[in-house]
Amino acid sequence: MVGFFSGNWKMAMSALLEPEVDLWVRCLNGAMAGFGTDENSLTALVCTIPERLRIPIFEKYYEKHGKGLLEHIESETSFSYKKVLVYQAMSPEDCRAKILNKAMVGLGTANDQLIRVICQLNFGERREVKEAYQRMYGRDLVEHITSETNGYFEGDFQKSLVCMLEATEAEFDIEADCAAMKEAMDGWGTDETKLVQMICNKTSKQMEDVNAKFKELYGTELLARVQSETSGYFKDTLEGCIRHPMKQLAHSVHWCINGWGTDDDGLITCLVHLEDFKKASLIKEYKQEFGKDLIAHIRGDTSGDYQRALCSLVKPAPQVWAEALEGAMKGLGTADQLLINFMVLSKDDMMEVRQAFHKKTGKMLEDWIEGDCSGDYKNTLLMLAGRNSEETISIMPVYWAQRLRDALYNTDTVKDVLVTMPATAIKRHTELYQAVYGASLREDIAKKCAEKSSFFSFSDYWKESMHRLLDMPVELYVRGLWDAMHGWGTDEFTLTGLVCTLPENMYGEIHGLYEKTHKRKLVEHIESETSFNYKKVLKYQAMPWAESRATALRGAMVGWGTAEDQLIRVIINATFAERRIIRETYKQMFNRDLIEHIESETSGSFKNILVAVLKSTNPRATLNYDQDCEDLKAAMDGFGTDEIKIIQIIAGKTDFQIEELKAKFKEKFDQDLYERIDDETWDWGMSIFIGSNFRACMLGLMREPMERLAYCVRDCINGWGTDDTGLITLLVHLSERKRRDLVDKYKEIKAGGDLYAKIKGDTSGNYQKALLALVKPPPQVWAEALRGAMAGLGTSDNLLINWMCIGKERMDEVREHFSRISNGQELAKWIDGDCSGDYKDTLIRLANRRCDRFSGQEVGLSIAPPASKEESAIKFTKTFNRLCKQRRQSGETLIPSEADQQEMGSAFLYYGQQSSCAPNMDIPGVWNLTNLVGFPPGDDGPDLVATFHEWDVSGTGEITWNDFVREMTTRINDPNHYEADPLPETIDQLGEIEKPLGDAWKTEVFGADDGPYMSHLAPANHGGNGAVDWKAAMLDGSWKDRLADIEPEKDGDLLSGPWGRCVEVSVKIEEEGWEGKFDDAPVGLIIDYLGSRGHESFIGAAEAKEESCK
Questions:
Q1: 0.70 exceeded by the pTM?
Q2: pLDDT tens-digit profile of 446-488?
Q3: pLDDT of 551-570, one tens digit each?
Q4: Cα–Cα distance measured from residue 1000 to residue 944, given in angstroms and rounded to the nearest whole number
Q5: Cβ of 92: how many Cβ atoms within 10 Å?
Q6: Can you name the residues that pair with 1056 across neighbouring β-strands?
Q7: How far apart, in whole angstroms, are the C-alpha atoms of residue 55 and residue 47?
Q8: DSSP for 531-580, written as a single string
Q9: C-alpha distances in angstroms, 851 versus 394, 504, 691, 779, 823?
Q10: Rounded distance, CA 936 to CA 921, Å?
């Protein structure tokens, strides 16, 4: 069979998919295993081991090969070359501890080695080396140095070393220290102890400041003065402390190379474990100090593998890897395994590797690979060679692109790739295929199918299934909708299944692509192909949510009479924000103000309550539940009911506030407020129809949201006939979670029961199927559609293919529902019995597809959430940063692709699955996400709540997937983001992962005001400022404005009235904890403000009030 993977390509793919630690271990062992040692590779590898991987590499090496890495290196190398590799392979602190120990054991002490090591360490590194020394040799380093430097002429030298090892960073008086140093060197003799105290206990930065100040004060260099006053190892040590660390290192290296012979131990000590910035700085300082190129100087004094190792220690890793790549391709033939190893090891620094390769050889790396390699293996290496270091793409897409290429010759491969990968991954990888091979995968497959060769002679259904698997969900829906309505007759079963499971986050794309592809609007096409209530179901469901609500309201008011119950349903089942959206949409669609239209069609208390609720787009700002309860009771007691007062109290409250009100009423009067209003608002003195509408509206507002919806649905089904328009309006556009909650709640309510059975008992035909499809979970609808495609005589193959592809991402759920409705028969077995030919195998693979189940699937996400919050944040920030960079460079508005949305969605998914409204995000989810990725709100109170509502464009009170994508798109195109510093992309850069969320947001009511929604009613008597929520006023800072024009009052010796109430609330706030919320204790702030307003005579009453409240 043609077109299999080449051996080198398999090696490359294996390396690319290998865990990083395993890759390093394999390469290191490969350089030493077998006959002879590949010193060039071993040098390049050991001298560039990433510090972050050192310990995992050591552990994995021993685990895989039964011997330690150091032990293996020692057995395969010798002399100074061995010492270089062993020291560099060790951890920095262990290496330095070993060098110090070697300098002191045996005959004599290598004092110059002690100076080289200790002077190069910062305070933290000195502590690590002391700990390593104790661990490795069971001896205190300071004690050992003291015992080895106690000669007659070594006292000051000893003191200086001990002082450095025991020093801790501390503040100091720079001028006083400079004066003390000068005094220690002036006159007869030198006070060496004072110099040690002043010089050896300072950090390099502090010493830099001292040098500058000493020169400024005394016109001479501190270093020159010390050199003139000291000698021997003591002078060398002080020089090491006074010089900048890199200048000192340059001097140490020069001393080791110059003169008779080379001090190899010293040179190795100086050069091992240099960080990249130190390598560049050392080369620069060496040139400035001695006028020589460091690498050239090393080459002039050393040779062979030892020379190559020392040079590799001072070159940046990308340059070392570039030289290793050249070596792998130089001469006769190419060392493919070496080439692969170093290409994969260096892939994250490829831009720097390319530059170093070109500088070394005068040729482009890609050109060299092009000339030395061939086939699929060459294409893979070229993709790697062209990669930019800042790119963060996974290497997996390269692997899949190669597999897709192979799919042109191997049908099992194409089935495996297209069945197992999520749709968004397929899109990303087919785009990469285009970039790698300059051709469209879809077109390449089509060409192969058209060749009619014996190998690729497949049925049209097989070709159709391959093409559908390449489609994105939006394309599948558009194709399925068109096929269901185009041509002779309409396939109502398919049309119902598709329209009733349209993903909410894809509405705009589906409508746009449908019109672009077929030159007609989707809703208009549906209207032309359907009729009666069935048409209304599909039309309302296919329309965007806000348009369906506006259309329902207008339908309730035009023509003969007004459908008051329909007005009630739409308005009371909308959130505050949704009411605003509905009003705006109504104006756009019908060029008429919704409230004005309602006022012209209704009257009395019913009109008042509808208008009050519609104007309630912000919650009430002033709340006094005690007063509200008193007013409500007064409005219902005695003869008649004060409906105006009831409206004033109820209409502007959120669902949460109404629950609080009900609880307070029960507490005060031991009565259920819902039942009391139920009695009082059945106004027998008015027309029963008007009274019942007002009553229905009020009672609806008193229920919690899902119970409210369930009762509205029940009222449409029960009684004389079915209110079809009402039922349709209530059931369209339910999220999958709301479908589940509605079905469950319907079982609990009075005269409810099995919602499916109720719908079946009251409706029939396509209309019935459509209503059921609106309340069933989409996987169940798809399972029923699949069974319908295979039921009866023959199988509708195109339908079967389309439904299998639509259900692909949730196939495990589809299988469960299919088995349930098919008497336990499995989907794969049904396909096996109903289908034939070459495409059956593809469908069976799809039917058996394994899916990771996660909450985000029901909102259209196909990639499971990461296992950790850190991984979710990094996926988000890398994608967000890349898109911001694209926006900045292009200068044009950028819309994230579906694949980019899904990558950013990892953070949405992680916090959405933990949310109280999963898969959507609640306020704590927004707090955690924004803090983790790097753009948190200013506080966990007002700013957090404002941020949440800014994101909540849908107005649902939850952050939906659409809300999230819309907000991220806005931010990517906002110069405050795309011109700002990038968000953190590594775990150590991330913000406070578990930044605590306080309770301030719970008392914060976003956008609260006492706006115009009561302006058409007579004002209720709420006792003026007594209605103010003083706790909220204290927390949001509005208390001063509210008290500014109010005269203080006394009740006996105690402050009373609004001022007294404010003091009372502030005492409670202080007991709960005021730190972080106020600049000072709240009561103190009020007393200060009382005095500043000219009310000093009331301060004593305020203090007495404070004491009485404690």
A1: no
A2: 666 665 544 444 556 666 776 777 777 888 899 989 988 987 7
A3: 999 999 998 888 999 999 99
A4: 9
A5: 20
A6: 1049
A7: 15
A8: -HHHHHHHHHHHS-HHHHHHHHHHHHHSSSS--HHHHHHHHHTS-HHHHH
A9: 21, 22, 54, 13, 23
A10: 15
